[in-house]
């Protein structure tokens, strides 16, 4: 009897404390992040930041984001500072977000360089770093649970299908000699290393006849293109950031040299920026990472590409920030957070991490299939298939996915006419 | 001399105690870094007239000296800091021939030297040694509180050197060189030796604080520690406060870097605009720094 | 391959001598370092971009317009800021900081006005297809930009050596105080040189979309470092030395890109340091001023 009534009492108490907890629900969920309105990363950073803002605006218009521990929607407050692409400033501001603004969720700025300084700071303060696009392999280790990569795969995963195509399909098409040029930064260098290893592992199926880095701030490729052409390659892989790709493709077009098979990263990722600068004609037959949104799988959660595009255009009508992969990346971060907040046990940082890791394999967004390496927090999903840019009868760009076979929508054109 | 020592004591004590009251330790750390760098610029520019436009080269050399010692020699942080200082001084020695250049030639050659350092360190061919463009991760020695303390100690040492320079025969000799090297040489001052010592001293300062920066930040890319903004900030802060004094660069950092952070946190969208206009205004209306204002009002500033 | 790189280096170098020319003219006449030089170039590039996209004006037509506008802006800008700067104790050094501030303002305004996107003008606007020179083929855009740069250099030479204004400008370069004493209107001469300096930077900007792939508000900083390299190799304050500096720089860069591409950006810096150590005032510099 006594035990029973004690049990009842406990149940009531638990109930009460639960109620009390619900009543204590915060008025807002504070999301802290940084952006660069100026400096080297301004273009890409603003795109990512604007993508995240679209998600926040949409949630707040619905009264907030649903947070499971409080069983209700809570409005989001975005606290964002401008690091001007300066890492020392970024470090200070990450710390400001953690220690002064006491944000509930900490999201990094664009890319590895501006994310790097946040990694130890977040870890030190036991804050989970929502790493959006910082794909540097050194960030992820088994002894640091305070980081997850949400919106793109870790650099070493990127060339998975590119390497697969060159080593598996390449020899069948007659591709034997591969030339590889890469900008010497973490993002491009890591991909180059992965591709180099894959070609080595293929044991002579294809050979690397040119393998050189160029400084990331290279803006003139004419001489390099001539040098590559002199090695008589069957396929050329040029890995760079968006401005490198633009300069490379423009110089190639102007030089009159044609490669039989050419891969660059950004025609698929920042299609508009590249098309505007290079022109549709200059992109014809170029191979690239295909944006996941045009591949066979459709998003099961969040807006589709066309819906997101429409939301983007009504929110940022002036066109000062380019729509593209990085804007999708910022929006994807929001979607991951939304799913995680709806399933987490509490707002505790490690609980949040558990919830995000729990999404692995279960979330398909505009950005592809979300898959985390649960041990390190590195993204291993969202890999970009290999595609080729073709022009339709109106001269508009069209992506043909050529590899892997299960996602392919067409055959590669080789050699490019 | 006494007022100088008091100033130094107040700054160091504040730097040491503020983390207890204010939680954004990194902000304070960056203040300490810039206080030190601005004094380093002061040593070479204030006392000899050489504008170290590529001062960040020493900072980066220190950061990589520290990192290499930790990664390859598996040294503890404090001995690794000695390597950081040594790396910067070594670079300074290598660059002493630059002191033969004058005016803008020196400034730009120095800038080129710092950029050359970046190109070398970040070259993928050196990945096995420097980690090339892939960046350094020193999470094994990460220790924010200890590294903060050491940074404050380096700041204290730097300020002490400045007090010495201001009040020693050597410091006076340096200033004589700055005003007129030919006359100074005729008066029996060893011009070459004086400049070289000041140059290496400023390299030592930047290298040491660069090493601590690497320790504190622990995950970084070559671009982070060789960012030309470190040089420009340190120079602007020192000049804004007033060079060849101790208080000048301190005030410069506290005011300008303070404003930099205040705008950055409160009105980020117009940040660059406001900051740029502020700098232009200061150069036009206070070309000899804040301390000249105090001097005009009749205060003696150390 | 070597021949290709050498000739490319000459074309590229000619363009880079135009890039550095304005900076050097301003330094030569006023002894001030215009750290906003790269940003003026950026503004010129954006002007060309908008003139092309809104009015369909090709770069060759845009260049003289951009030049005139830049000179017209440079003139009042000179009187607003430079005389004040020159009165300071160490104008050479102080100007570095002042123009750093100006550069920040320009970049901030450009970012607000244009956004952060990459922009460019199609290469075919400067002529389609590659051009064959000495058995090698180069992009038409390069050849045209190189030719325009050469023409600009010739015009600057004529201005400096064949006009009265040019003679007085050179007098101010040699010795500002003496020029003042002989009754030369130093401020007028300087203001014109300042305007022309900005104008040359802006014209270089018109061709930047072709020579540098694309343009964006933050591009100025990299341009500055390159311009300094070029003009210091040639000799500070000697506008014609810039041509030599530009070609040395261009050839060094292109040869490195061909053979040791990952080290390509290192060589120009080493070259600069090396040349200065052998000839402390650049290749065409006069002897040292003092110890």
Structural summary, described in words:
- The complex is a heterotrimer of chains A (417), B (302) and C (291).
- Helices cover 42% and strands 18% of the residues of chain A.
- Chain A is α/β, with parallel strands linked by helices and 417 residues long.
- Chain A has a 5-stranded parallel sheet, with helices on both faces. A 4-stranded parallel sheet of chain A has the order 9-8-10-11, sandwiched between helices. In chain A, strands 12-15-16 form a 3-stranded antiparallel sheet.
- Chain A is globular, with a radius of gyration of 23 Å.
- Chain A starts with a helix and ends in a 14-residue tail after the last strand.
- The mean pLDDT of chain B is 90.
- A two-stranded antiparallel sheet of chain B has the order 1-2.
- In chain B, helix 7 (144-167) runs antiparallel to helix 10 and helix 12 (228-241) crosses helix 13.
- Chain B has helices spanning 2-21, 25-48, 56-72, 77-95, 103-121, 127-130, 144-167, 169-179, 181-186, 191-217, 222-225, 228-241, 247-266, 271-285, 290-296, and strands at residues 136-137, 219-220.
- Chain B has 15 helices and 2 strands.
- By secondary structure, chain C is mostly helical.
- Chain C has a single domain, classed as ABC transporter involved in vitamin B12 uptake, BtuC, CATH 1.10.3470.
- Chain C has 11 helices and 2 strands, in the order ααααββααααααα.
- Chain C has helices at 2-30, 37-55, 59-86, 91-114, 140-162, 164-174, 176-181, 186-211, 220-234, 241-259, 266-278; strands at residues 130-133, 136-139.
- A two-stranded antiparallel ribbon of chain C has the order 1-2.
- In chain C, helix 2 packs across helix 8.
- The chains are: A alpha/beta (417), B mainly alpha (302), C mainly alpha (291).
């Amino acid at each position: 009897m006594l035990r029973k009534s004690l049990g009842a009492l406990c149940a009531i108490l638990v109930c009460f404390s639960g109620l009390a907890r619900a009543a204590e629900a915060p008025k807002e969920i504070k999301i802290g992040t940084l952006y660069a309105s100026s400096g080297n990363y301004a273009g890409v950073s603003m795109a990512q930041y604007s993508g995240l803002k679209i998600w926040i605006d949409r949630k707040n218009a619905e009264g907030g984001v649903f947070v499971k521990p409080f069983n209700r929607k809570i409005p989001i407050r975005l606290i964002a500072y401008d690091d001007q692409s300066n890492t020392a400033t970024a470090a200070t501001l990450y710390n400001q977000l953690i220690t002064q603004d006491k944000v509930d969720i900490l999201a990094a700025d664009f890319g590895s360089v501006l994310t790097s300084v946040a990694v130890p700071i977040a870890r030190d303060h036991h804050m989970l770093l929502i790493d959006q696009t910082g794909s540097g392999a050194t960030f992820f280790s088994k002894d640091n649970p305070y980081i997850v990569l949400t919106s793109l795969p870790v650099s070493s995963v990127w060339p998975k299908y590119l390497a697969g195509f060159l080593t598996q399909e390449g020899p069948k098409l007659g591709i034997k000699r591969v030339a590889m040029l890469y900008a010497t930064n973490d993002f491009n260098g890591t991909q180059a290393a992965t591709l180099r290893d894959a070609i080595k592992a293929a044991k002579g199926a294809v050979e690397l006849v040119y393998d050189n880095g160029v400084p990331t701030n290279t803006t003139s490729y004419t001489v390099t293109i001539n040098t590559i052409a002199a090695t008589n390659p069957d396929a050329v892989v040029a890995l760079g950031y968006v401005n490198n790709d633009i300069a490379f493709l423009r110089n190639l077009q102007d030089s009159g040299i044609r490669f039989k098979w050419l891969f660059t990263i950004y025609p698929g990722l920042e299609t508009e920026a590249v098309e505007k600068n290079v022109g549709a004609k200059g992109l014809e037959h170029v191979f690239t990472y295909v944006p996941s949104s045009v591949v066979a799988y459709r998003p099961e959660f969040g807006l589709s590409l066309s819906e997101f595009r429409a939301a983007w255009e009504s929110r940022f009508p002036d066109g000062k920030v380019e729509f593209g992969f990085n804007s999708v990346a910022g929006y994807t971060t929001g979607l991951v957070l939304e799913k995680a907040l709806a399933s987490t046990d509490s707002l505790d940082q490690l609980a949040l991490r558990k919830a995000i890791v729990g999404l692995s394999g279960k979330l398909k967004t505009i950005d592809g299939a979300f898959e985390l390496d649960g041990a390190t927090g590195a993204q291993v999903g969202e890999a970009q298939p290999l595609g080729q840019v073709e022009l339709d009868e109106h001269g508009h760009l069209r992506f043909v996915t050529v590899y892997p076979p299960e996602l392919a929508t067409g055959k590669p054109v080789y050699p490019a006419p | 001399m006494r007022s100088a020592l008091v100033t130094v004591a107040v700054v160091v004590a504040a730097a040491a105690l503020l983390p207890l009251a204010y939680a954004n330790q990194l902000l304070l750390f960056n203040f300490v870094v810039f206080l030190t760098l601005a004094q380093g610029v002061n040593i070479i520019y204030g006392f000899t007239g050489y504008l170290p436009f590529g001062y960040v080269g020493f900072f980066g050399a220190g950061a990589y000296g520290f990192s290499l010692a930790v990664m390859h020699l598996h040294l503890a942080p404090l001995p690794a800091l000695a390597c950081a200082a040594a790396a910067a001084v070594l670079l300074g020695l290598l660059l002493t021939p630059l002191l033969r250049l004058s005016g803008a030639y020196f400034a730009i050659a120095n800038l080129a030297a710092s950029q050359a350092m970046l190109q070398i360190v970040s070259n993928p061919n050196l990945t096995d040694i420097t980690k090339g463009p892939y960046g350094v991760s020193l999470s094994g020695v990460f220790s924010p509180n200890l590294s903060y303390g050491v940074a404050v100690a380096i700041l204290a040492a730097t300020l002490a050197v400045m007090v010495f320079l201001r009040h020693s025969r050597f410091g006076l000799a340096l200033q004589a060189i700055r005003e007129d090297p030919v006359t100074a040489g005729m008066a029996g001052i060893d011009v070459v030796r004086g400049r070289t010592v000041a140059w290496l001293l400023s390299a030592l300062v930047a290298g040491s604080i660069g090493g601590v920066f690497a320790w504190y930040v622990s995950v970084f890319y070559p671009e982070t520690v060789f960012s030309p903004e470190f040089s420009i900030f340190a120079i602007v802060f020192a000049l804004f406060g007033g060079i060849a004094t101790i208080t000048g660069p301190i005030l410069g950092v506290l005011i300008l870097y303070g404003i930099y952070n205040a705008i950055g946190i409160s009105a980020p969208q117009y940040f660059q605009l406001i900051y740029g206009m502020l700098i232009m205004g200061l150069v036009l209306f206070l070309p000899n720094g804040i301390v000249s204002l105090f001097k005009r009002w009749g205060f003696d500033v150390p | 391959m070597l021949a290709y790189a050498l000739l490319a280096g000459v074309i590229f170098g000619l363009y880079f001598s135009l890039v550095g020319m304005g900076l050097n003219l301003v330094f030569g006449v006023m002894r001030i370092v215009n750290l906003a030089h790269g940003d003026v170039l950026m503004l010129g590039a954006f002007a060309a971009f908008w003139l092309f996209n809104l009015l369909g004006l090709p770069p060759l037509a845009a260049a003289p317009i951009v030049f005139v506008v830049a000179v017209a802006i440079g003139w009042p800008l000179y009187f607003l800021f430079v005389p004040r700067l020159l009165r300071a104790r160490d104008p050479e050094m102080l100007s570095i900081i002042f123009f750093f501030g100006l550069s920040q303002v320009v970049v901030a305004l450009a970012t607000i006005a244009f956004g952060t996107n990459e922009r460019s003008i199609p290469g075919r606007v400067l002529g389609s297809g590659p051009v064959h020179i000495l058995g090698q083929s180069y992009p038409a855009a390069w050849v045209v930009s190189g030719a325009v740069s050469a023409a600009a250099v010739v015009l600057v030479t004529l201005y400096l050596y064949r006009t009265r204004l040019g003679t007085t400008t050179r007098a101010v370069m040699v010795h500002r105080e003496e020029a003042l004493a002989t009754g030369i209107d130093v401020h007028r001469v300087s203001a014109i040189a300042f305007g022309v300096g900005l104008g040359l930077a802006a014209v270089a900007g018109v061709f930047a979309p072709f020579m540098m792939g694309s343009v964006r508000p933050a591009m100025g900083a990299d341009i500055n470092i390159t311009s300094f390299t070029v003009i210091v190799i040639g000799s500070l304050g000697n506008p014609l030395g810039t041509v030599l500096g530009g070609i040395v720089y261009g050839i060094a860069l292109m040869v490195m890109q061909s053979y040791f591409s990952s080290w390509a950006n290192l060589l120009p810096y080493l070259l600069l340091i090396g040349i200065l150590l052998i000839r402390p005032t650049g290749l065409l510099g006069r002897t040292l001023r003092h110890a």
